[in-house]
Specification:
The protein is an all-alpha fold. It has one domain. Helix 3 packs antiparallel against helix 4. The radius of gyration is 16 Å and the shape is globular. 0% of the residues are buried.
């Protein structure tokens, strides 16, 4: 699962299918965690993300990047993408429910 470049707009049917497939894989790989998936407060989410970036992204960063470092940061990025998607979905449900 790798995004190379920019998507062409309007999205083609194959792009929608690919995005859907990738999203389902991520959802299976990173199931909702009760502690994390209940965070809708964006300041709290941003603070948690910043803390993780400092601990995992910048703490042992050096050039050239090692494979272990790159793999760890990519995993954290995928997790944060799923968490962000879940939080956005909750906000949209809340906004449009009221």
């Amino acid at each position: 699962m790798q995004f190379l470049g920019r998507a062409e707009y309007p999205l083609k049917e194959s792009s929608w299918e690919s995005f859907g497939t990738d999203t389902m894989k991520l959802a299976e790989e990173y199931p909702a965690d009760e502690d994390d998936s209940n965070v809708i407060d964006f300041e709290e989410w941003a603070a948690n993300s910043f803390k993780q970036a400092k601990e995992f992204g910048y703490d042992d960063y050096s050039l050239p990047m090692t494979k272990a470092y790159r793999d760890g940061v990519q995993e954290l990025t995928r997790y944060q993408l799923m968490l962000g998607g879940r939080n956005l979905a909750k906000v949209l449900v809340h906004v449009f429910r009221t």
